[in-house]
Amino acid sequence: MANLLESVLKGQGGGEYKNMAKEKYLILSERLFLLNTLDVTKKCLNILTKVVDNIIESNGDEPKYLCLKLSSATVSRRIVGVSGGQEFLYALGFSKVRDTNSSAFILEKKDVDLEHLKKCKEWIYNHDRNNDRNDGFIVVQIRQLNGRALIAPFYMKETIQDIYDFVLNFRTDGGSSEFILCAYPVVEYKTPEQLNLPISALCSKSNNDHGGSGGYSKKINLMIKKSNISNDNAFLNGGENANVTAFNEQLKLQQAISDRRASRIEEEKQRKQDRKKAIDAFKEDREDTQLKEHRRRVANENRLKSEMERIDKYHQSLLGNDTNNNANGDT
């Protein structure tokens, strides 16, 4: 299941929840821990318990306990590399800091809240005791108005209202108004009866196990759209096309985002082609320059060789004249 979430997040080009209250991170981490095996989650929480204990026992005065370097295999693999681990560090008050050489999670001395840390430690204790997965769970992906997706696991016994509340608390598209949960093609969940349906009612049967019993599909997809009173009234008055139009507008927005992404890819491809052409032209110019330089050097060498031959002939003629003059003097 963790691999499933990771692959979905990569497909969305993101997935990291940022700038939330510590209490929200604690709620989020509880959900994300479901994506790990019990053994992985337990080992992660044991390490996090040690982190909390060290800070509490030192009263937050020991700097080495307030800095968790990602160069440490324990931090990078057994905390941050575990679903929910990074969110739990945020819940403790840590923040991620990067520089040119390394990255680390830092808890500023002024941000140390011992009472909150004690509550987090108590949460870990209760999580270990109350963690029961017999009901099974499933990953739910909710596409937001900006095209990005919220992704989290939910128990099958939870309701659509729980998904709605999760989106309301954790949505990252900047929206704060009321919205409607939709499933494909045009199925809305907005009445109390619909919102009280169990999540298992949304799942299609398959042969794949999702981590619990039941044989449901591993992931369900939902989307949100703006709650439009006029559209709702039009629908109640018989104007069924109103909701279809709103849904089509949502699809157009998603298509526009996809088109922009494709445009950026095409622009990057064109830039690479232009750069290759420029490099090829530079190589050709350089080869022409080198060829011209070679020809100039050969011409100079030939001129020098001709000049040396002319000088040698001149010297030989002078020596021949001297020899003849000496022979005439002897006679």
Topology:
Elements lengths: L1 H11 L9 H11 L5 H20 L9 E3 L3 H6 L6 H8 L2 E4 L4 E4 L7 H17 L6 E7 L5 E7 L4 H11 L8 E5 L3 E3 L2 H4 L23 E8 L2 H8 L4 H90 L1
Parallel strand pairs: 4-8
Antiparallel strand pairs: 1-3, 2-3, 4-5, 6-7, 6-8
Helix pairs in contact: 2-5, 3-5, 3-6, 9-10
Overview of this protein structure:
The chain is 56% helix and 12% strand. Helix 2 runs antiparallel to helix 5 and helix 3 runs parallel beside helix 5. The radius of gyration is 37 Å and the shape is elongated. The protein starts with a helix and ends with a helix. The protein is an alpha+beta fold. The N terminus is likely disordered. The strands form 2 sheets. Strands 5-4-8-6-7 form a 5-stranded mixed beta sheet, sandwiched between helices. A 3-stranded antiparallel beta sheet has the order 1-3-2, with no helix packed on it. It contains 10 helices and 8 strands. Among the domains are: 129 residues, Methane Monooxygenase Hydroxylase, Chain G, domain 1 (Up-down Bundle), CATH 1.20.58.2190; 91 residues, Ubiquitin-like (UB roll), CATH 3.10.20.90.
